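Notebook p. 47: complex prediction with zinc ion.
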Amino acid sequence: MPDKKDYYEVLGVDKGATEKDIKSAYRKLAMKYHPDRSDAPDAESRFKEISEAYAVLSDQEKRRQYDQFGHAGMGQYSQEDLFRGVDFEDLLRGFGFGGGRDSIFDAFFGGRRGQPARGRDLRYDLDLTLEQAATGLETTIEVPRAEICQTCSGSGAKPGTSPVSCPNCHGSGQITRAQNTPFGQMISSSPCPKCSGRGQTIPNPCQDCSGTGRVRRVRKIAVKIPGGVDSGQHLKLRGQGEAGPTVPGHMGAESGDLYVFVSVRPHPLFRRDDADLLHEASISMTQAALGDDIEVPTLQGRARLKVPAGTQSGSIFRMRGKGMPRLHGSGTGDLHVRLNVRIPTALTPRQKQLLEDLSAEMGETRPEQKSAERKAGERKAGDKSILDKIVDEVKGAVR
Ligand SMILES: [Zn+2]
Ligand SMILES: [Zn+2]
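Predicted complex, structure tokens below:
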């Protein structure tokens, strides 16, 4: 493969790069060139290029052979063998890419050998309120995706014209060459550069898709989210991803799938724990001591909660069935209400007097009484210096 770039150059690392350097260089470039991320016309080919470089340099044995023999040393591997053992899904996790393993695989091969190519999977993130998550939701989302061009039915040729067999590769899409390498003669094949491996060229391209056979469209898709859904869960809409590639031999390929990932926004009044909800409410000191009947919010509207006399601050009361529905209709969770007792701060003179009376009634000793008793005790001791006595007098006056 004469025009192939050096793998180290492709990843922008030097020959002594560690496994970690290689991985981080790959991830950085993958962010930039992943076809889900980039609209650059060469994104897909760049992505393949960096992924192949990574597949080789991240494997000790393959890297050793590459260091010794260059690209010729790679001739013994089929493309699938070259990528074997690399978990791209794991490597690219957290980037928010639509593709799982299959679609990344497809990006390299236009489909696994022996199987028709398949369109890329797509990911759509849907934000819900807690109320929507409780009731479920039927909505329409707008998904930009590649679809088969209606004008040319995916052939890429202007209506009334047809693609012709590529003269360079005689329609095979592959250029095969024999090379003499230290391993003996090796047969390697690479995609035909003239037709990009399609085996056909299009003398009169369709104007709507510029000969690609696919067009990008924003498609409105109806989704039905069941009640009880939680963050991180997803819905799979089969066949609603991108249309399959339209390369000859793969016409009519299956479309990818669309994954709708749900994320439920935090709620100002409720904290969610699976199907249960927690609400924090506050009651006054007297409500706690005497008991009351209070109003609390629930997802279904306001409800009444009986506060028994003598409720301690932090007590949790359970309101059965006022939580979230469980997915697949297996009952409903509970609403837990934590009651926090509010201590009054700005007392009127009368309130203060009432509380002091209450305190006396409960047999408590107020601090001013305590200090008077202490002073009496100190006087009785009678062993203070004149100075100590004067200090005590002054303190007393200040109090
Ligand atoms: Zn077209
Ligand atoms: Zn060709």
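Notes: The chain is about 30% helix and 25% strand. The CA atoms of residues 270 and 279 lie 5 Å apart.
Next step: compare against the earlier run before touching the bench.
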